[in-house]
Amino acid sequence: MKNKKTLLITSLTSCNGCLFTILDLGQKFFDLLSRFKLLGFHLIEDEDKNESNKIDIALVEGTVATQAEKRKLLALREKTKFLIALGACSHLGNIQKLKNYGNKEEILKKVYSNASRIENLEIKPLSAYVAVDFIIPGCPPNKNEILEILRQLAINRKPYLPDRPVCYECQIKGYPCLLQKGKPCLGPIIRGGCEAICLKGNFPCTGCRGATSEPNTKKMQELLGHKEYARILEIFGNK
Amino acid sequence: MSNKRITIHINEINKIEGHAGFVGKLESGQICEARLEVAEGARLIEGILVGRKIQEAPWITSRICGICPTIHNLTSIKAMEAALEIKVSRQTIALRKLALLGQLIQSHMTHIYFLALGDFFNLKNDTALIKINPKNAASAISLRDFGNLILNIVCGRNIHPTTTAIGGFRRLPAANQLKKIAGTARKILENADQFFDFLNNLFFPQFQRLTMFAALCAENEYAFYDGKIKLPKNKIYAVEKFFQKAKEFQERPEDLIKKVKIAKESYLVGALARINLNHKKLNSAAKSALSRANFQLPCYNIFYNLLAQMVEVIHALEETQKIIASLKIKEESPIPYKAKRGAGLAATCAPRGLLFHYYEINTKGLIEKCNIVTPTAQFLANLENDLEKFLEQPRQNDDIKMLIRAYDPCITCAVH
């Protein structure tokens, strides 16, 4: 195939779990790679490549937690046609954003006795820094969604993810409704596509994929109580 | 000898978990500095947990690391159970041990094949590595997939577990799924054995530096989930005692990783340390592989960490079958608990070595204090001491990276 699209997979501060999710595709991922020109994926290669290359598609995992990362992201955006925020860190801020809801200087001092030289930026989604062309949500993301989106992009199709709540898949799969059992589950307002995997494990939805386009948040708040609702939303940076 | 000052600077060491570079300084041929430079930010996990609900700790701390989330999750759960004085069922313990074997296999195979092996062929790209030996690639990938299979069945998901809970499991695996795991383990043991022999025949750089090892140890098994802490010469410490001795310190104000030393000495944790200390507890096929290994114990050459990891993968495949053979799943829910004031410390052996989670909790069920000490934080000083000695000879940047990668550092864990 001529004129293969160039692809870069990179990460900022995070757990790297999105990248391991990509590796979890195993042979399917390496087969898919033959449809792209890979410009970099630091987990599987250590090559010096021409940095001036234009990037057609960039998958970015993680949040900006240092000034150097901010520079890295801005420079990447300059060179990239289609920038994808991969996973809950880049989409929402994820657990590291929890410090925003408290006193982040106090939180820093709890961890480092000498905090004078430790950077402590407020955590924001990537979209607060740069234009984001597409979001692959989740903590971790669904590997099948990553595969499908890359396949769509390889053939010049506009990628698409459905906008329906976690409950939709949960009910299709026939998992018992935790909300009806009185457990604090965000399923009705959170975007599905995860195959309701937490519910499969009997774990309530805590919202790692962000809200659907028209969530009934008022009803959700009533059901869970304002305090509990806020607590759960904080976990992945939804608040 | 010249009086020249030389600085070696590697901006980013690829093929490790997380982001770090390397700085080395030589003066008149003498090494005066060798250290890893972190190239990511702090997430302040220990700080953000304060004031949050105790059941959030396992859910949040699993997200410290995408390659070993399950061990953080379970160590956090164990520490909370210690604080709450909950005793879990034997079935729960057996399933947790099984999960840790899955985690170990997945993490080790990722490191051995995707991160470290290319260095032994001077290949900088795993797609090239796959091309030169597709059969080996398939073997490594299927072993890694097997680790994930265990995690998906036992923990609900291979990255960031869903079924695990304080007091037990939210959902138990079905008996036929466990049977499937045991059957697969039996089938792929031969692959693992062959993969070990393939690794064993590679050329390993000959470099060693005497050091101290530390690992979890138990009476009747090769310990990952529970036990005491063992040091060389059969010195055994209670977990609390060791945790007091292992001192965390922030060397420079800009350091994101707090290193750990015992009586000012650096020490090694991880597969090579465990093999050195606990090899007598290995299962039979693992013992047999170890007897074929091209190194002698005690082994102080970190490049052999790959072989030690592969011995552990073989051990894990045997242990998986043993655990499942002894399991008869009965329905049970997590043990209910009441919040109370307390402190809990737990130690486990993560794929990269000893891991500690410590929490203080209150009567409202909220976390008041948290301290997490990761394997990479513990072996970092040892790694840098190795690098200093390694650089006494002229080395290429690729050699330096190869040594660092052999350690299998996890930067996101170490910073957390």
Question: How would you describe this structure in keywords?
Answer:
heterodimer, A: alpha/beta, Rossmann fold, 5-stranded parallel sheet, 13% strand, B: 416 residues, alpha+beta, Cytochrome-c3 Hydrogenase, chain B, 2 domains, 3-stranded antiparallel sheet, 45% helix
Secondary-structure topology with pairs:
The complex is a heterodimer of chains A (239) and B (416).
Chain A: E1 5-11, H1 17-24, H2 27-33, E2 36-41, E3 55-61, H3 67-79, E4 80-86, H4 87-92, H5 104-111, E5 134-136, H6 143-154, H7 166-173, H8 197-200, H9 217-224, H10 226-235
Parallel strand pairs in A: 1-2, 1-3, 3-4, 4-5
Helix pairs in contact in A: 9-10
Chain B: E1 5-10, E2 20-27, E3 30-38, H1 45-48, H2 56-61, H3 69-84, H4 90-120, H5 126-132, H6 134-155, E4 164-165, E5 168-169, H7 175-200, E6 212-213, E7 215-217, E8 228-231, E9 235-237, H8 239-245, E10 246-249, E11 259-262, E12 267-268, H9 271-278, H10 284-292, H11 305-325, E13 342-350, E14 353-361, E15 367-373, H12 375-390, H13 397-407, H14 411-415
Parallel strand pairs in B: 6-12
Antiparallel strand pairs in B: 1-2, 2-3, 4-5, 7-8, 8-9, 10-11, 13-14, 14-15
Short précis:
The complex is a heterodimer of chains A (239) and B (416). Chain A is of the alpha/beta class and 239 residues long.
Describe the structure.
The complex is a heterodimer of chains A (239) and B (416). Chain A has helices at 17-24, 27-33, 67-79, 87-92, 104-111, 143-154, 166-173, 197-200, 217-224, 226-235; strands at 5-11, 36-41, 55-61, 80-86, 134-136. Chain A is an alpha/beta fold. Chain A has 2 domains: 5-154, Rossmann fold (3-Layer(aba) Sandwich), CATH 3.40.50.700; 166-235, no CATH class. In chain A, helix 3 (67-79) links the parallel strand 3 (55-61) and strand 4 (80-86). In chain A, helix 9 packs across helix 10. Chain A starts with a strand and ends with a helix. In chain B, strands 1-2-3 form a 3-stranded antiparallel beta sheet. In chain B, strands 7-8-9 form a 3-stranded antiparallel beta sheet. In chain B, strands 13-14-15 form a 3-stranded antiparallel beta sheet, with helices on both faces. Chain B has 2 domains: 5-38, no CATH class; 45-415, Cytochrome-c3 Hydrogenase, chain B. Chain B has 416 residues and is of the alpha+beta class. Chain B is globular, with a radius of gyration of 21 Å. The interface between A and B is large, with 64 and 63 residues.
